[in-house]
Prior knowledge:
By secondary structure, the protein is mainly β. The chain has helices spanning 2-22, 178-181; strands at 67-71, 92-99, 103-113, 117-125, 136-138, 144-146, 164-170, 187-188, 200-201, 210-216, 223-229, 243-245, 253-255, 266-267, 281-282, 287-288, 299-300, 303-305, 315-322, 325-333, 351-358, 366-367, 372-376. The longest helix has 21 residues, at 2-22. It is elongated, with a radius of gyration of 46 Å.
Amino acid sequence: xxxxxxxxxxxxxxxxxxxxxxxxxxxxxxxxxxxxxxxxxxxxxxxxxxxxxxxxxxxxxxxxxxxxxxxxxxxxxxxxxxxxxxxxxxxxxxxxxxxxxxxxxxxxxxxxxxxxxxxxxxxxxxxxxxxxxxxxxxxxxxxxxxxxxxxxxxxxxxxxxxxxxxxxxxxxxxxxxxxxxxxxxxxxxxxxxxxxxxxxxxxxxxxxxxxxxxxxxxxxxxxxxxxxxxxxxxxxxxxxxxxxxxxxxxxxxxxxxxxxxxxxxxxxxxxxxxxxxxxxxxxxxxxxxxxxxxxxxxxxxxxxxxxxxxxxxxxxxxxxxxxxxxxxxxxxxxxxxxxxxxxxxxxxxxxxxxxxxxxxxxxxxxxxxxxxxxxxxxx
Length: 379
């Protein structure tokens, strides 16, 4: 009995132990570990890029002795007066000498340009304003005669003429040595002296051309005569040799002669001077000549004029005679599209030219022994 009780007790103990071993252990909560808050990224300020200074553009310098055409925003008025825009333009001077009546003088030249035009301001001393270009004079017997230079043996009037100025340009650099000799490449003094005492003008070779801007104080109206030079030699049929007017659609000047050249064809309107001034009659004002209105000794201008139309009228001009000097302003398109003109289409190029001045002289002009060149200052 005791033994049995003992066994039962042992079994109970074992049961308790087994029950304890087979029970699931209680879940143990893991400690909560708080993760540190993520730090927001700090935006890094971009590093300042080093300032790289661009090299300064080289200052443009004009070639020594050049006539510099200065860019301007507006065109000058072509009236022979000094507009303010001319103040910043630098003048060059060209000394001319050897002409009839004048001796020597210095021609001052300035230039400015716009997007499509180029302008020149030219002035020079001239002791006399000449406008008596071969006028008609009524004679004591009632006939009319043209006043002439008694020493003129042909195209050589140096007494009753007009003042003129000319600029000659090499077209497309076609004339050899023009950049050193200038006008002398086309002047041929002494040739055919019995017909042309001061010689002829033409280029040396076929295919050589020059552009002549020929301002005439009496015969031009708001323009300079646009002419050109080629290699044509003198003959009875080509009295002008190589010098020609550019093609014209009309207009220009004509001698004031009646059909048989014994008297004027036209006179000025009522009140027009009878002393020969101003040297011309405007075609728009010309009145059919009436001999009965004139007395012996009265003068009638020998020229009737209007503006050229077409290629020959490409050069606009205005002028004034002030205090013993001529002031002449010229304007022309940079590119006229004409084969007879110098074209200023390359503003980086140099353009060579020569100058001549006529003081009451038909052909015996004061001339320049050197040559000038034009450049454009960039905008």
